[in-house]
Design brief:
It is a single chain. The chain has helices spanning about 20-25, 45-55, 70-85, 105-120, 130-135, 200-210; strands spanning about 5-10, 30-40, 40-45, 60-65, 90-95, 125-130, 150-155, 170-175, 185, 190, 190-195. It is α/β, with parallel strands linked by helices. The protein has one domain: TIM Barrel (Alpha-Beta Barrel), CATH 3.20.20.80. α3 crosses α4. The chain is globular. The N and C termini lie far apart (about 35 Å).
Length: about 240
């Protein structure tokens, strides 16, 4: 039996210039994942102010790092230093996609990044990518990356998941213009919106556990790798 998704998550960065978290919360949004860092040195200039604002509005908070070909140890330090105090109830994510502005993170670097985050925090980060991008490099379960919960980027009506994961945990189904509606978020406007593979109670439990709930707890659905979807957008 396939889980009923919950459409109550957005992901944002400095490109989202007008953000009212109270309106987003009133409009049904439960969680926000904000870009924190990219590569070895870049820090999103809106991260530090938005986290307390979102938490004050009663929203669940998460942070993602856009991986590049820079030294992995330095990238991990940049990310974990920037995300701030962590009581274990914040989602941490590696954004793995082509870097059109420079060197891209390799699959081995992604493994090293995820392993380092797990060693520092005690939990595996989420892994954001598209089916086509990952499937071009990885065919089947991976001893490291399959431990990460999977966040699918695909602007289509049917999610398709790389064979390294049994299913998706989050699905970025629109960038605010492509994909299925709704596109808008109250207080933000058109933006990246995401579904969670479960009901609202399980979403809260998953998030408050810092994403440590195994993806194997999700019922398998039809969303297996088959037709390769278009890569997710570069979010640098």
């Amino acid at each position: 039996m396939t889980a009923t998704p919950t459409n109550a998550v957005i992901d944002i960065s400095h490109y989202n210039t007008q953000v009212d978290f109270a309106q987003a919360k009133a409009g049904g949004i439960m969680g926000v994942i904000q870009k924190a860092t990219q590569g070895a040195t870049y820090v999103d200039p809106t991260y530090a102010t938005r986290r307390p604002e979102a938490e004050a509005a009663g929203l669940l908070w998460g942070a993602y790092h856009f991986g590049t070909g820079d030294d992995v140890t330095t990238q991990v330090e940049n990310f974990l230093t920037t995300v701030g105090p962590d009581n274990g109830s914040m989602l941490l994510v590696l954004d793995f996609e082509e870097n059109t502005g420079g060197s891209s993170m390799t699959l081995d670097q992604a493994r090293d990044f995820a392993s380092a985050v797990q060693a520092r925090t005690g939990r595996w980060p989420g892994f954001y990518s598209s089916n086509s991008y990952v499937s071009s490099m990885l065919d089947g379960p991976d001893s490291v990356l399959s431990r990460c919960w999977f966040w699918l980027a695909q602007y289509d009506s049917t999610p398709e998941v790389p064979s390294a994961w049994p299913t998706w945990t989050l699905w970025q189904y629109t960038d605010g213009s492509a994909g299925e509606e709704p596109y808008d978020c109250p207080g933000v406007g058109p933006c990246d919106r995401d579904q969670y593979n479960g009901d609202a109670t399980k979403l809260t439990q998953f998030w408050e556990a810092g994403g440590v709930v195994s993806v194997s707890s999700f019922p398998p659905g039809p969303e297996r790798a088959g037709r390769r979807s278009a890569p997710g957008p570069c979010r640098s």
